[in-house]
Every structure is written in structure tokens, then in C-alpha cells.
Amino acid sequence: MRNVSGRHFPVVIIGGGQAGLAMSYQLKQREIDHIVLEKNSIAHSWKTQRWDAFCLVTPNWQCQLPGYAYPGSDPKGFMLRDDIVAYVESYAKQIGAPVREGVRVTRLAADPAGGYQLDSSDGEFTADSVVLAVSGYHIPNVPRISEKLSPAIVQVHSSAYRNPGQLPEGEVLVVGSGQSGCQIAEDLHLSGRKVHLAVGSAPRCPRVYRGRDAVEWLDDLGQYDLPVEQHSLKEKVRKNANHYLTGRDGGRDIDLRRFAAEGMRLYGRLHDVENGALKFADDLTTNLDNADRVYNGICKLIDDHIARNAIDAPKQTHYAPVWKPEAPVHTLDPTAAGITSIIWTTGFRSDWSWIDLPLFDGSGYPTHKRGVTTVDDVYVLGLPWLHTWGSGRFVGVGRDAGFVADAIEKRQAVRFNAATIAASEQVAKSA
């Protein structure tokens, strides 16, 4: 493979977040030369796409990037946004990751000379192998129905929300009840703002149950190590919303019913806007009941584990609703209701348009098995449920990176052996 003025590398990692850094660590352990190209800066999304009061929902002890376990003094606490940034930045320094910041890759394609060609804001690179460590959250997703709303209503995507003070006075509608939606709704609620919440189908999880954080119980049960192939939903689990709970103020449940009892207005899923009026589905009761069913299902899973292993743990009853919806609201005039701003916590869309390689399925998702794609020498890392529930988290990305690094090392050995045989044959012909 060619090497033009230091622009060729055995491995190029695209993305300098925790996945790309974990990949760099694993390659360094195997003495495989590589470079990490990061279009912004290390920990960029943690710095710029999280609100002021943001914190992890998983305990600090789960921050287990390879070669760099959580270094702080509060393993059962929950790191705040700036602490997370510091953790990732210090990891990059600790491992000496060869990161080039401010380099955006604009095209990845096969190189006619072999391997791959990468066009970037810093010119062209070539590589034998490429690791796509860019997550799947690329473009803020705001539904087109937002275009039907009055221009007087301020609209903000969750990635741009910082604190209640950035919004105009008045009531706030939060659309979406995944982790971000519920935590932002809580942030506004605790500040004294009047909040309306369009509730979707995301499940919820207990924070503490029978004397321990639920994450500790689930870790003991091997839930974070369960391969996608063994999950009841198989690959469909990759599209599931994460359970909502919070690490705020030491960690607690998020109970939307309790919020409603305290004055938060809950609705079903927002499905349309007609003549400026918000249209909600008649599924609020179903969505709340299903979230509670998952919550109590996790409690039952823990109960069974405790009984099966004769563990001494305090008794605790399962969750019982503290509030139930009355007549559903199907239509709401936001202006008449005093709503002056809307926060869209509706996730992100993937953008793989810059990759000119046949590695995607019909939905645009990279086809892979544990990060090894269907295109030779191209890998993905850091996606939710890449291999296990822990794959998209600090706790599991290092193991996935190790698997991919092993695959790269094997491919390098194959190329080396092929080159050796070819060179021997050439010598024999010349003799």
C-alpha cells in the first residue's frame, strides 16, 4: 500500500469521541499504527449538546473506558456534564491518542490502488482499514409538523436546550418522553416553569430497588453483556428507546404521574398540527401503563434474582400509580394555553451520505456483525446495541473496540502473508 507524504495509515479512525478513543487505545495495545480524525474537538457533543444540569444516568463506576476506569472518589454518584468532558479529555491525554481535531471527513470510498480513500477538510488520506466511530446521532430530528406552528412560538431542539432561562416567559411544551425529554421536563418543572409533556412509548426503570441501584442489580444479572442475538427482539432492539430515570441530585426515579399530580400537564403522542392547534393521540394511559409495566418487570427480575440466590435484601413493594389521566385531551391551542416555547426531544437522524461504500441495509443502517461490516476492512463502533446493551456506553465500548482491533490485526496478518508470498514469487521469477 502506498504512503504519500505521511498521508497513508494502516488504520484511520473517524470520530474522536469515547468510541474512537477506545479504538485508539486497543490499536496502541497491539502496536498498530493509526490516526483519529475528529471533525470538531474531543468530547464535542458532551460539551455542546447537553444542558447545564445534565448528568449521567448510569453510576460513575460504569465509566470503564479501556485502561482508564473512573478515577474519582464517588463511584456510586453520577458525573455532571463538565465532569464527563474532563473524563473524556483526560482519557485522550492518558492514552496519547493520535487525534487530529478540526478535520472533517467529507467522503469515504474505495481506493483504486487498494484500501480506502478519505477526502477531508485537511486534504486526502488513504488507509488499509477504516473504523467509523461516529455514533448514529448526526442530525437533530425536528418533525416537519413544526412548520405548521405559529412563528411566535420559540422552538428548540433538545441538543440546543441549556436551561429554563434561555426560554421566553410562559409555559413550555416538551415533545417526547425518552431520557432527554423526561429529564428536560424535570429540569423545567423544578425551576417552577409550567410544563406540558407529550408522552411517547419510552419505558422507565427504577433508580434504587431493594437497597441497591438498579444498574448494580442489572449488571449482576448480566443484562449489559447480553448479546443482541440473544435478546428476544433480536436486531429490532436497536430501535428501542432507552429507559428513563435520572442521576440528578444523587439519583432518583422519574415518575411522570407524580409530576402530573404536581401540576405538569400530560398528553398522548403529538401526531399533527392543524391550523396552529396541537393534535394528540389517545394513548397517554397506554404509554404510562406500559412504562410502569416495564418498571415493575425490572423489579420482578431483581426479585427473582434475589430469591434464586438467597440474597439478603430489604423488601420493597412494586410501583403503584399515584395519578391517572382523566378525559384525554386531543386538541390544544398552544396560544390559548399560554405555551410560548416548544422543546423537541425527538432524537437525531443518521447521516451516512458521505460514505460511498455498499455497507448499508434498506433502512440505511450499517450491516455488520459485532462491528465488522460486510465491506472488508471497514468497521463501525459506538452504536447502540452494536453487540450488547453496554455497547453505546462507557461500560461496553472498550470491549467492542477490542473485538474490532482483533479483527483488524487478523486482516493485517493476512495482508502481510499475501505480500510475503507475492514477494517470494517475484524473487523466484527473477532468479
UniProtKB/TrEMBL annotation:
Q: Which organism is it from?
A: Variibacter gotjawalensis
Where does the signal peptide begin and end? none
Q: Name one GO molecular function term.
A: flavin adenine dinucleotide binding
What Enzyme Commission number(s) appear in the record? 1.-.-.-
Mind telling me what this protein is named? Putative oxidoreductase CzcO
Name the NCBIfam families for this protein: MSMEG_0569_nitr
| Keywords, sorted A to Z | Oxidoreductase
Pfam families with a match to the protein in the record: Pyr_redox_3 (PF13738)
Q: Does the keyword Oxidoreductase apply?
A: yes
Q: What is the lineage of its organism?
A: Bacteria, Pseudomonadati, Pseudomonadota, Alphaproteobacteria, Hyphomicrobiales
